[in-house]
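Researcher: Sit down with what I've pasted below and flag anything odd:
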Amino acid sequence: MKSHEIFTAVDPAVVTEMLDWFRDNDRNVYKTAVATLAAERKLRPVFIQKKSLVDQYAWIQKTLQIRVCDPIGEQILQSYLMAGQQAMLGMFCDGMGIPHDGKGSVVGELPKAIDKERLDATVEKLVDVFDPKIFTLYLHCFNMQVAGGYPALVEKIESDERLTLA
């Protein structure tokens, strides 16, 4: 999935949680996202900033559903996951045997393939620890990091009814 497809499929509550996190923890990312998305749509940021928070969030999600906004959407997803979900990323990397910096950032190269048994065990453990929608969001983003994705991960996401974005 590309980021515009993720933002189309994801539960709006997940987007709200993500944007709330930015507003509470890194306002600069939020302001930059609004400004960049507004510029992409040929609008002034103040036009968006004058909207209520609920309307801002709805506009951001709707705009991120547009294919040309994929780079912005990917950056927002990665920033949120890398800064706001470090424990989940670290536990996923540990479960998969992927070396990381303790905060979920992979050290070295990503694996060329994913071991299906390790993936099953890791998903089984983490889907109950973290919000399944946020965890599924991470799995989709992780899968975007390699060209063509990981077939075992795609199969797991498609076959496990707990791994839904909506």
About this structure: The CA atoms of residues 39 and 82 lie 25 Å apart. Residues 3-80 form one domain. The radius of gyration is 16 Å. The mean pLDDT is 95.
